[in-house]
Each structure stands twice: as C-alpha cells, then as structure tokens.
What does this fold into?
Amino acid sequence: MNRYQTVALAVGERIEQGLYRVGDRLPSIRQLCREFRVSVSTVQEAYRRLEERGVVEARPRSGYFVAARIAASALPSVSRPAQRPLDVSQWDQVLELVGESPSHDRLLRLGRGIPDLEAATLKPLLRRLSTLHRRAAAQDLNYDGLAGSLELRRQIARLATTSGCLLHPDDLLITTGCQEALSLSLRTLAGPGDVVAVDSPSFYGTMQILKAQGLKALEIPTDPQTGISLEALELALEQWPVKAIQVTPTCNNPLGYTMPEARKRALVALAQRFDVAIVEDDIYGDLAFATPRPRTIKSFDDDDRVLLCSAFSKTLVPGLRVGWIAPGRYRDQVLHMKYVSTGASATLPQLAVAEFVAHGHYERHLRQVVRQYQRQRDIMLGWVMRDFPPGTRVSDPQGGFLLWLELPDAIDCVRLNARLSEESLHIAPGSLFSASGKYRNCLRLNYAAPLTGKIEAAVKRIGETVASQLGEHAELLG
Amino acid sequence: MNRYQTVALAVGERIEQGLYRVGDRLPSIRQLCREFRVSVSTVQEAYRRLEERGVVEARPRSGYFVAARIAASALPSVSRPAQRPLDVSQWDQVLELVGESPSHDRLLRLGRGIPDLEAATLKPLLRRLSTLHRRAAAQDLNYDGLAGSLELRRQIARLATTSGCLLHPDDLLITTGCQEALSLSLRTLAGPGDVVAVDSPSFYGTMQILKAQGLKALEIPTDPQTGISLEALELALEQWPVKAIQVTPTCNNPLGYTMPEARKRALVALAQRFDVAIVEDDIYGDLAFATPRPRTIKSFDDDDRVLLCSAFSKTLVPGLRVGWIAPGRYRDQVLHMKYVSTGASATLPQLAVAEFVAHGHYERHLRQVVRQYQRQRDIMLGWVMRDFPPGTRVSDPQGGFLLWLELPDAIDCVRLNARLSEESLHIAPGSLFSASGKYRNCLRLNYAAPLTGKIEAAVKRIGETVASQLGEHAELLG
Ligand SMILES: Cc1ncc(COP(=O)(O)O)c(C=O)c1O
Ligand SMILES: Cc1ncc(COP(=O)(O)O)c(C=O)c1O
It folds into this structure.
C-alpha cells in the first residue's frame, strides 16, 4: 500500500467507526503529517482520494469535513408493497438475468450477485481443490452421507459462534447452495395456496420459489435502514394465515441494511407469539462491514423455530454450490426434502471448503474482501451521486457488494435494460424483487469486482441513459 | 485373460446371444479344443467355471447343457400392488439405507445402488477432474448457465442416438443427479393430492418424492420380465385422474427387466390416448447387457410428452452428482423448477464428464463394466440358488447390477435386517420399493463390486439367516 493509501484508509476507518460524524471537521493536513510522519503532498493526495469517493468534502479555507455521503433524505423510501397475498410473476426477467453463464455473456451485467473472484486470498481454496482431486480415488466419488461432510459441518458450527449461534454439527445439513436451503425450507413449511410473509424488496430467487411452489407472497413494508416493519408485520400476522416469515436481515439483498439487534430479537418474539417459523437468509452476513459481524436472528431463537440458510457462494465462490441450513425443529422434514430434492451432495467441494476454513484462510479472505467491498461501496456511491440525475436515491449498504438505486418514478428499469443492451450493458431491474412487479423504477448494481475505468464508464452511461429517458418522459408530458 | 477364461467367456456369450437355449446341448470338449486350439484341461476348466456360475450343467456321460438357470417358475411373481392411490411411507427405512456415507459405514451394505468404483476404466475421469481443478481459476467457479454445460449436453445428445433418440443439446438440462431430474419432473407435473401411476416395485427415491410432494402413488402390477402391465395401467387410467406415469423401463431397478420395444411403444400410445405425461427413468439403461442398448420410451415419443431422466451415477460415479433431463414440452417449467431448486449446477464436474465422454472413454468403460456385471450377475445368481432356501425366487437382470429376491411369504426383510446387523450385514428390504410396504418378503442385492470371498460368505450368511427365520416360523406354526 502507498503512503497516501495508508492515510486515506486510516481516516476512512475512523469515519466508519463513528469517530467523526457527517459534517464533522476532520484533522488538518498538518496534524495528519505529524501523526503519520508523511509529507504534506501525501496527506493532500489522501484527502483527494477520500473526496473522490465522496467520503469527505473540502470546504474552501475551512479544511476537510465528513461528507453528507448519503443524507437520510437520499435513501430509498420505505417500501409500500401491496400488503395482501399475491402470486409471484417476473420469471422471464429473472431468467434473462441468471440464465446465461457470466463467462459466455455478451453483456456487462452490473446487476448480478457475484463476488470478486480475482481476490488473491481465494488461492488456497483453488490449491485445496486441486490437491483433493489429484489424490482422489473413485471411492471418494461415492455417495456422501445425506447430512453432508462432518468436517465441514464442524467448521460451519465454529464460524457460527461469530454470529452468536451455538450450533452442533448435527444441527446442520449441507445443501446445494443457499438456493436449495431456501427451497427445502419453504417446501417444508408451506404448500400451494399458503401465505409467506417476506421483507420487500426481496431476493428474486426466493420469490421464484414461492411461485414454483404455488405459495403467495405477502410483502411487508421495509425500511432501507432497519429492515422489515415489525408493526406492519404484526398487523399482517393478525390478518392473514401466514405459514412462514422469510427475511434476509443482515446485509440485505438488495437493500444492504442490517436489522438492529433489538429488532431481530423482537422479530423472534413476534414469531413466537403467532407461532410462525422464520426462514433467515444469511448468505451475505459474513460480509458485514462491522466487526464482529452482526448476530443472526437464529442466535435469539430459543425455541428452534428459525431455519437459518446460507452458503459460501458470496463469501467464496458460487460454483462449488456449497450451502447449508440449520433447520431447528424442522430437521427431520428438511432432511427428507433434501433427500428427494438432490440426494447427498458432492463430497470433494465440501472437503475443500472445510480445509480452507479449518486453516484460517476463510477469516483471512473475509478481512481482505470486506475492506475491499467497503472501499468500493464508497467509490460506487460517489459515481452514482455524480452521474445519475437529481432525485436518485441510493442505499447505504452495511455489508456485501450490492447497491440499490431508486430512480424518479418515470423510469421503468425493464425499458432501461432494453436501451442499455444496445451498449452491451445490463442491470438488475427492481421489479424482480417484488411479487407484483413493484420497484419498476429501482435497480441493483454490483460493486464487488475491482472498479475499473470500464465500470466507471458503464455507470456513467447508465446515469446518462436514465437522464435521457427522463427527458423523453418530460417531453411527452410537456 | 487366461485361456480357460477366454473359452468360458465365448461360450457364455453364445448362450447369452441365444445361439444355445436352456436345455440345449453344448459343444463337446473335443470340439472346443479344436476350435480354440487349447488343451482338454483348459476346456474342462472353462466348463467347470461356467458350471459354478450356474450357466451350464454337466450331465454324466452326455456332456454339457445350458442350465435352466432361472426357470420361469423361479422368477419373482407378477406384482399385485394395491391398485388404488396410496400415500407413501417407509422413509425411516430409506434413511437407514442411504443416510450414511458408505465410507463411514460399519455395515457391509449389499443393498445399495452403487456401481463398481474400482474399475480401471474410470481412471481417465479422475485424471480429467484433477487436470481441470489444477488449471482452474476462481472464474471457473462462477455461476454456470442454468441449462448446464453446452459441451456436456452435446455429448449426452450424441450418446442418446444409441438409444434411438434424436435430441438437440437445447433439449437437455443438466441436473444434480437423476434424483433432481425426477424431482423436477414430478413437481412440474403434479401437486398435493394428485395421483401418479408407477411400476411396482419401484425405486424408493421416486416413491419418497411422491411422499414429500404430497402425491399419491397408484402402483400398477408389473411383470418381472416385461415390466408394467399395460392392461392394468389402461384400467387404472380409466378409473383414476392420473397426472403422470413414472416408469424405469430399461434395466429396471429393482427387477432388472427391460420392457420389450413393442410394449414401450404401446405405453406411449396409451399415454397419448389418455393425454398423460411419462417420466422415464433411464439411469441404468446404458448398462444393458444387450448391444446395441435397448431403445428408450423417449425414442418413440412423437408428441414430446416424455420427460427422460438420467445421470452418470450408475455408469460412472455417483459423487459428481451429474444428471440430466430431456423434458420435452415441459422444458420451460422444468427449467424454472431447476432454478428454484438448486440454481445452476457446478461447472467443473460437468466439464470433466464431457471430456471423458468426448474422448471415447465412456464407451470403453461401459464395454468393460457391462461385461463384468453380466459375469457377476451369473455368479451372484449361482450363489443365491445354492445358499438360499427352496422357494426363493430371483430376478433375471438384463442389465445393471441389482438382483431382486422374493423369499417365502413368512420372511419379513426388515426383521431380517435387524438380525443381519448383528453380523454387520445389511440388505435393501423390499418394502422400500412400495408405497404401502408391500414386498416385505423381498430384498435387493448388489453385484457390482468384484465378488470377493467376503461377499460370497455374506450371501451365504444371509441365506442361512433366512432359512433359520423360516425354521422359527414353522416352529411357531407347528
Ligand atoms: C439473498 C440470497 N439468497 C440466496 C442466494 C442463492 O445463493 P446460492 O448461489 O448459494 O444458491 C442468493 C444469490 O443470489 C442471494 O442473493
Ligand atoms: C432408478 C434410479 N433412479 C434414480 C436414482 C438416483 O440417482 P442419482 O444418484 O443420480 O440422483 C437411482 C439411484 O439410486 C436409481 O436407482
């Protein structure tokens, strides 16, 4: 790291930790020179970088201040979904997003949920995969036990303590990605016609499970900083025969918030009062910017009603398809569902991940990418605020690598995509994240991969295209 | 191969090809000496081996004759299941069979559906897996396209021509084993309370899908040589609102029969007349002893109503979890089900299999193991006829590596297992293969792995245990 990067990082971290708040004056250039024993030009460069990222702002003749990065007013609005059970649609759009392999893709898809696969700290995982496959005999490619590798379940149980969970390896089942974990959960808890309450917007993969299983989505208003509205949820539970509550409370996809602990605890209490199960999707939880990482809802679950679903798809790589579930009191049914769904999972990928975790590589990798994602969040935020038309609202992710934009009402992001595809660009339109095609004026962007000039130019083009669609709309009206 | 093995194999093959039929006199020792240019003792040894396997029998002073290996009367009876829609049970017993990884198992499980993993012809697959993983970058562990690797789908389409099927790679979707293919099919075709007609006995994995999905199994009488009774099926279709017909018509698990072509064709016609879909499980089809392998039902499917399900789990190894489906007219729905069930499948195992097939290793491996399984079928048959009490009926597998035994009525194979577990032995009890616990007096044995003295001794012990349970039963009655 250069000297100026060291300084910029240190100042950035102090802001992140709340030592300086929005509008606070930051140390002068002279102070930082003394503290870090560096030259004036180094500190100037550091501040310039922070300014570029939108973290600080220079005020002429007064010095540097913490920028009002995302003033509360610029956050996406609290969502107002339909609040009655709805059939899910939008499959065509989801297929357009996830149907093709990214390596065969002619579009630059800025909307997909893919982590940075170039991270050097992934190397030990590749080495382990290589060694295991080199040494493998065909016997190692026999059927595995249904619950999955004990070694891996041990490691996952150990990691879970970080999120406040005391799990025994037997409390865990390995799945084919988080998608299978969610699918098994919802199929265990509810059948055709049943109602599932979800935060909203909500991951399209879960919404499509509801659709495939004939379930109805009851979308609950959700705050972009604190998550699902407990008040609205309580009303909904009184009014509808809800079979399960499905939430992604930590580093939410797509909104990026982490529910405060008190609200997580209150959600468990509410579920207990109405005797409903909770399906908790924690796939981005280990990518929280805070340390230690936030607690899971599962960690407050004193009567085993939470089914905790996760995977290494966002923290490591998606293509090993290694996920897991801690199904609580539903273990037997979920194990049955797992058997009929795919049988036992592949063994060697599980062993590779288990060894990677056991040797401390997972935690090292997390430290590295979490810092990277946090830095890139700020850069991407800066670009969006610079390049998108006024009236654009943007999320303030507390972890993960996804940004949610709420554009002026006149914008339809499916139409936007059609326009963008002419320039080989693609975003994830907001309507995928709703049962009923709400959030048409919203979109999701990914800031995981190193933010090259190409991506900066792409963000700029998207901003310009939005602006031009707004212009056309105004003309139509005028 | 030794000289006597060459001779034994040649004579065995002529019998298999029908050049000599049961009861026919075989060439004299002198004739074979001339033909193969070997000594008398070599031919004697060859005949001794064939006799041991129960293929030929010596008649004093008359020579060698084709043995009435399995006289028709010793075949299992035509099944007589309940013929009304039933809820499936038996999960506990299935879990006992498949719950544990074979490598951690304290029992010698002679009932599991595992191929010979020691076959030398699998080596190129292991090499390819090793090379692919050594060369892999993390990008190769990104999400794959939903339909799966095009390379692999091309190879599967090419192989399908052997079974009379003209498929385009786009007609195929890669799945997580055959289990996922079956699960996607049945979930696409039917919902809770719906009726699915099945051959009977039927693979327990499929039966458990019905259970998990809340479907009812309508078990149709099935002939141990020609498969599902079309007459009974027709009556059932007239009487019940059947949503799908699920069959395993080639190298059936557990009965080993292959439906004659004419009956396969007639089954399609029947499905057309009643406008019902057919789910065809072909997982053992490439292991048929006949060459070319028998045609699939799918190959007669002129209006795209057959969903062909298969995998490399029995022909290569189970632990890669590479399966596929040709879903016909249901492609869009099955693709949706695939997405919500597990998302895209892992890429590298698909590529390894694709390369293995493309280089001709698959066909080479098949030739090798099919001959081995055919030989071992005869040996295992011989052991069973020698070591089991009179009244035991046994299937005559036309492919694959599974033998089905029908024991005298007094035997309950779940109780038998309890007794066998004291000697660290385990068989697959017949009741797993029925919705309602029929076939309690039946069991399944595996003859895939090289038939060592240990396995011979195990078969003997099982036979003795059956005999002793029969004795106890007779005493109780007496
Ligand atoms: C919130 C959330 N849950 C689950 C998944 C599915 O994860 P996996 O790829 O492990 O099946 C994703 C991936 O996009 C996700 O964003
Ligand atoms: C007839 C049949 N179908 C399907 C399967 C499941 O195959 P896979 O292991 O590929 O999921 C089996 C395996 O036991 C089987 O015997």
About this structure: The pocket of pyridoxal-5'-phosphate (ligand 2) is lined by residues A 343; B 113, 177-179, 203, 205, 248, 253, 281, 283, 311, 313, 318, 323 (CB under 6 Å). The longest helix of chain B spans residues 361-387. Chain B has 15 helices and 17 strands.
